[in-house]
C-alpha cells in the first residue's frame, strides 16, 4: 500500500513521486478530477476521494479528511473563555507572589522603573563613547547624590519634630478639646489624643530615647539590604541595557512580534522619562511655592514642608491628601484660633489645585492621558500592596500597561 501522506493541499493529486503496488513508478500522475465529483481511490487504498470545504479544498481518504494549509481560527467561545480564566488565575497568583515577596520585589521593580526613566540619560553618555559600565556608574552616582540630598532635607528638621512628638500631641489634644463643643463627633478622638498627651511617662521615655536613629535601628538591616538590592539592580540594568534589550527581543518568534516588543520598550522609556522629568520640575516648583508660603505665614521649618510637598506629590491623590492633613495638624499646634490654624492648609490646597488643574495638564498635554479613576485605584492598590513605594510606582505601572495594551491591540489587528 503506497504512502499518501504527501498531499500538500489544494484540489487534485500531488505531483510528488509515487510507486504503484508493484513498486514501479508510473509514467504520469493521474489526471485531476473535476470539482464536485468523486475521485477513484488509489490502488490498494480502498474507498473513494470526495472534495470537502475546509477554507478551500481538501480530500477524504477512507473516512479521514486532509485539511489545507489555511485553518480558520475558531470564533470566540469556550476556548477563549478558558484562556481568559487561566490568565486571570495566573494574574492572581502573580499578585499574591509579589505581595509575599515584598522585600525582594519592591527594590527590583523600583530599580526597573528608575532604570527606564534614566535610560535616555545613560544612552546619551554611551553615544558619546562613554563605556556602558562607566556611564551607568555616573548615572547611578548622580541619582544617589540626589537621594542623599533629599534625605538630608527631610532628616534634620524631621528629627526635631519627632523629638517634640509628645509636646505636639499634647498641644493638639488641647486644641481638639477646645473644638469639642462645635464638633461633638470627635469627642472620642480628642479624649484619646488627650490621654496620649497627658501621659508623662510616655513623654519622658520618648524624649530620653535614642532619637531618630534609635527609632530606625530595628529596621536598619532590612533597609540596608533593600537599598543595596535597589542600587545593584539599577546599576546592572543600565550597564547591560542594550544586551538585555537584544536578549528580550530574541525571545519573540516573529518579526512583527519583535517590532511590537521593541516599540513597547521604546515608548515606555520615552513616556516615563517625559513624565518623571516634567513631574519632577512641577513638584519642585510646587514645593518651593509651598515653602515660601509657609515661611510667609510663620510656620516652623518651612524647608521641611517644601520638601515634604515635593516628594508627596509624586503619589497622586494620596500624597496631596496627606500633605493637607499634616499642614492642618501643624497649623492647629502653631496658631491660635480655628481660622488661623487652617490658613496654611488652605493656602496649600489653592496651590495644589492650580498645579493639578492648570499647570500639569498644560505641560503634559495629551501625551499621558489616563482616566483619573484608574490612577486613584492603581495608586491605592499598589500602596496597599507595597506601602509608600507602591504609591510612587502606581502611575508608572499604569503608563507602561496602557502603552503595552495599545501596542498589542494594534499588533493583533494587523495580523
TrEMBL record:
The chain crosses the membrane at residues 76-98, 104-122, 134-156, 216-239, 272-297, 304-332, 368-385, 391-410. This is AI-2E family transporter. The lineage of its organism: Bacteria, Pseudomonadati, Pseudomonadota, Alphaproteobacteria, Hyphomicrobiales. Residues 29-42 have a biased composition (Low complexity). Pfam families: AI-2E_transport (PF01594). The keyword Zinc-finger does not apply. Keywords: Membrane, Transmembrane, Transmembrane helix. It is found in: Membrane. GO terms for biological process: transmembrane transport. The keyword RNA-binding does not apply. InterPro entries: AI-2E-like. It comes from the Bacteria. It comes from Segnochrobactrum spirostomi. Belongs to the autoinducer-2 exporter (AI-2E) (TC 2.A.86) family. GO terms for cellular component: membrane. Residues 1-50 are annotated as: Disordered. It is a multi-pass membrane protein.
Amino acid at each position: 500500500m503506497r504512502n499518501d501522506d504527501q498531499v500538500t493541499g489544494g484540489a487534485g493529486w500531488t505531483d510528488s513521486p509515487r510507486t504503484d503496488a508493484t513498486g514501479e513508478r508510473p509514467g504520469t500522475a493521474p489526471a485531476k478530477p473535476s470539482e464536485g465529483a468523486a475521485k477513484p481511490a488509489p490502488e490498494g487504498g480502498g474507498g473513494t476521494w470526495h472534495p470537502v470545504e475546509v477554507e478551500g479544498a481538501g480530500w477524504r481518504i477512507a473516512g479521514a479528511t486532509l485539511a489545507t494549509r489555511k485553518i480558520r481560527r475558531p470564533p470566540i467561545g469556550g476556548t477563549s473563555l478558558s484562556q481568559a480564566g487561566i490568565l486571570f488565575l495566573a494574574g492572581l497568583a502573580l499578585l499574591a507572589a509579589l505581595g509575599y515577596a515584598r522585600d525582594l520585589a519592591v527594590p527590583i521593580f523600583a530599580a526597573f522603573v528608575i532604570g527606564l526613566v534614566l535610560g535616555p540619560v545613560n544612552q546619551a553618555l554611551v553615544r558619546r563613547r562613554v563605556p556602558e559600565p562607566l556611564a551607568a556608574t555616573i548615572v547611578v552616582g548622580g541619582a544617589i547624590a540626589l537621594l542623599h540630598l533629599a534625605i538630608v532635607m527631610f532628616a534634620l528638621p524631621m528629627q526635631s519634630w519627632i523629638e517634640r512628638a509628645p509636646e505636639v500631641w499634647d498641644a493638639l489634644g488641647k486644641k481638639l478639646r477646645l473644638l469639642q463643643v462645635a464638633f461633638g463627633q470627635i469627642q472620642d478622638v480628642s479624649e484619646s489624643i488627650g490621654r496620649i498627651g497627658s501621659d508623662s511617662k510616655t513623654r519622658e521615655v520618648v524624649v530620653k530615647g535614642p532619637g531618630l536613629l534609635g527609632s530606625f535601628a530595628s529596621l536598619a538591616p532590612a533597609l540596608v539590604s533593600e537599598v543595596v538590592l535597589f542600587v545593584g539592580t539599577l546599576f546592572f540594568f543600565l550597564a547591560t541595557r542594550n544586551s538585555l534589550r537584544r536578549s528580550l527581543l530574541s525571545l519573540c518568534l516573529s518579526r512583527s512580534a519583535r517590532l511590537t516588543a521593541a516599540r513597547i520598550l521604546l515608548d515606555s522609556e520615552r513616556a516615563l522619562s517625559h513624565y518623571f522629568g516634567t513631574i519632577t520640575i512641577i513638584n519642585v516648583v510646587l514645593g518651593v511655592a509651598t515653602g515660601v508660603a509657609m515661611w510667609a505665614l510663620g510656620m516652623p521649618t518651612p524647608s521641611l514642608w517644601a520638601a515634604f510637598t515635593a516628594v508627596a506629590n509624586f503619589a497622586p491623590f494620596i500624597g496631596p491628601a496627606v500633605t493637607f492633613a499634616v499642614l492642618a495638624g501643624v497649623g492647629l499646634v502653631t496658631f491660635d484660633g480655628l481660622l488661623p490654624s487652617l490658613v496654611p492648609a488652605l493656602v496649600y490646597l489653592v496651590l495644589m489645585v492650580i498645579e493639578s488643574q492648570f499647570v500639569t495638564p498644560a505641560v503634559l498635554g495629551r501625551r499621558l492621558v489616563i482616566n483619573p479613576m484608574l490612577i486613584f485605584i492603581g495608586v491605592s492598590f499598589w500602596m496597599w500592596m507595597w506601602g509608600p513605594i507602591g504609591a510612587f510606582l502606581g502611575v508608572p505601572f499604569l503608563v507602561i500597561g496602557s502603552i503595552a495594551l495599545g501596542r498589542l491591540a494594534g499588533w493583533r489587528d494587523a495580523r
